[in-house]
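Known limitations

Files may contain more than one protein. Parsers should not assume a single record per file. Below, a two-record file is shown to illustrate correct handling: read the sequence, read the token line, then continue until end of file.
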Amino acid sequence: MAETNWYVVHTYSGYENKVKANIDKTIENRHLEEEIIEVRVPMQDVVELKNGANKTVQKKLFPGYVLINMVMNDDTWYVVRNTRGVTGFVGPGSKPVPLTEAEMKPLGIRAENLSVDFKDGDTIAVVAGVWKDTVGVVQRIDYGKQTATINVELFGRETPVEISFAEVRKM
């Protein structure tokens, strides 16, 4: 697999979530899951005073911009660039410039490659978080998000749950 980098895409203001949804749908339709890894609209929690009460709301960290972790090639460039609401990649001319490690760190994006001691089909135990003391079978590993999707039994049914690498250990 070719190297992925994070790129910044400029969108019409207010279209960030719509652009994310459109790109996610295109990834699914064109089977580009191996080339476009993740599409993200960075959000932050902001406390607002409304009607005399503090209320925590999510606001866009960079209005008008969407972050995309992808392999840059002609096909992925074309898909992203021609998505409704996208005005272009951030960079000189039409050449997209990937984010550096220093630029990604304050955004909470982890770039380091992790290796885990489990793989698809392995049984793992959740050791922290909401699903603590739950056992499940690994269905999918996402190194970009550093999560594993496991099947757990919930109300007598197998249910997929996404768990952070830090919350699990191999049985």
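...continuing to the second record:
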Amino acid sequence: MQISEPMTMLTDYLLGVWTLYLAFKLIREGIGISQRSILLWGLSFFATGIAAIIGGTSHGFALYFGTVTRVVIWTATLYSIGFTSLFLLSAVIIATIKNPLRNWLIAFTVVKFILFAVWIFSHPEFKYVIYDYVPAMIAVLILQVYVKYSRGDRSATWIISGILVSFGAAAVQQSGYMLHEHFNHNDLYHVIQMGAVFLLYKGGRLLRDASEPSLERE
């Protein structure tokens, strides 16, 4: 069996397995202590891990896929990334904003995802994923900077660091920089992103749902 991009497949699989492992830990913790923000953060990790596994499969076994299979794999990857931005942003909104504004922002985030999902079905281009994902990450970054300096939330430093490392990884990927002929820009991106995922995991464990005013008075 011929593998088209073995190192890219391997690093994608490593990133996927690592992220899924952390996802299950976050989901279990979020359910255990009844924190929706941690649960949603864990779901975002799950979506990211699935995207990485699918990506690794695409890189490694592309020579064996027919047209329909390639379309299905590509579409699944796009939707997985869309779910990632939906869950990440929703988690931070729940951890940062109180009602009634929280409900409006969550509704906006869900509508944004639905519009993305409908559009991407007939326009399966990666640039539209970027248009959806990057603003969501910037919004998460802004909210975490806000809570870091207004409330001193312990999650903020980890999450801010994770986002910045993730942006750095994306910059490396876009640069086309190669450490070796058998370790290209995609492989390097995956390795750096594993570090970013760990930082985001550490921050996600510290998220707490924003208390409602009625609970604060009790």
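Parsers that stop after the first record will miss the second one. For reference, the second record is described as follows. Residues 6-206 form one domain.
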